[in-house]
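sorry for the late reply, my laptop died twice this morning and i had to redo everyting from scratch. anyway the thing you sent over, i finally got around to it. pasting the sequence first so we're on the same page, its 546 residues, then the predicted structure underneath. double check i copied it right bc i was rushing
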Amino acid sequence: MILVVDDNNINRTLLTKILSDEYRVAGVENGQQALDYLQDYCGEVSAILLDLNMPVLNGYEFLERRKHNKELCNIPIIVQTTHSSLDAEIACLEMGATDFLTKPYSPKVILRRLKNIITLRENESFITAVQHDSLTNLLNKEGFYVKARKAIDENLDINYLILCVDIVQFKVINQFAGYQNGDKVLLFVTDILNFLFKDDSIIARFSGDRFQALIPAPLDEAYLDEVIAKFKENPPVNLPLSIQFGIYEIKDRTIPLATMCDWSKMALETIKGRYKKYFSTFNDEMFDRLKKEQIITSQMDDAINESQFIVYYQPKWDIATNEIIGAEALVRWIHPKYGFMSPGDFIPLFEKNGFITKLDMYVWEEVCRQTKEWMDLGIQVVPISVNVSRNDIYSEDLISNLLELISKYDLNTDQLHLEITETAYAQTHNQLAQVIGNLSKEGFIIEMDDFGSGYSSLNMLSEVPVDIIKLDLLFLNKKSADSKHNKSILKLIVNIAQELNLDLIAEGVETLEDINNLKEIGCKKAQGYYFAKPMNSKDFLKMLKG
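ok and here's the structure:
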């Protein structure tokens, strides 16, 4: 994967188009976003294209921060700038940059320099004397790149596989058994991998509980079953222990080794969380999905500029009065070539590459603009809730951007409700509590989405100034929605909301039976297909008028 760090949308789009045929590409707008992105995906990035002049954290500051992070120092960096000078080039090289590139871009030059740098990274001359993981004494990532590349290039008579090996629920092991026992598990896994994969095999620990291996093909299912069985014999901790494999069959030896490892990891991710599914092989379907992601990534900026993203509205209702009391803004992508694109295809990708922040801003402004337009028509509007993603919480400009929109369209802060999820709380705990507290002081109404779906609901209610909690009925067993047990859970949540003086909205309401159950337990507000599906602004306006 190549990470493009540039505050100019046109530059990011151009580089994505140049690189996407050969590499996965992610783009961020400044050095701080790059550091945040690398915190989660450092192991997947093969090179960085870094602009020097950016807001928040510029290229020089990013290089300075990088010097103090051992993992980041291993990632090659090509510095890009419009105005080249000898002093700037020397300064960047002294700070650890690998190469220097002057705009405007030459596609052939960029691709050749990247290929050279990535090959150099995989070459023995790039690797320092420290090539092994200090805990397991296996090769580390850089050592694996050197030795595996050499084996692939020299042993043309051997067909190889790349394995990505992951310990199932390793975080749980660390949490409940302690990090010291977690290390014992890593050593246990190392011993078994060394025992089972011997001749002509190369094994490495990349990071955490991720192992990579180069082994001769074929690897049949019976042998994998034997490997998996070994992990259940005499584990070093009194917890269930299992592993999963992602497999990439090497067909083209010229592909960068980092890409091969990415594809084995991608295969592994398709089975994470699936019970008794232990291995998955990278196939044409996954490759097609990867190409689709590259298409999405290369066209996402154009989609905003051309207003291909459309805001839909799903009403919220007062059950007793049967009146609209609000709506949730949902984004839809209507592509001129591919038509309707499912949010499930692009939202997770945007959350991963950081573009979700820009898309959220687009949605927020569209909602404010539309609300103002309706008000000017004399329509009695209702509050619209918009999503605030985990990435938004890290933005220093979040509050000022929201207040600027409210002022621009002459709205009140309580007309734009802000939805956060438990996932955001779990991943940005301290930061979120502070940011939401400041938003609440400005008068914004805070909605907690997917209440009860995670581990920290009650903690969140005690630490974050939430005004409304949204309960998704789908998290309960719909087959027994009228059971005494599920009604008791719903009633308990209603009581919690009343005790804390919070509004409660039930999501996923689909049947009259759901409505009757909600009335019985005292839940007064709801949202779901029973009332209305998400609709475009014209249809929602008709509903407001009606």
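The CA atoms of residues 19 and 468 lie 44 Å apart.
thats about all i looked at so far, will dig more tmrw
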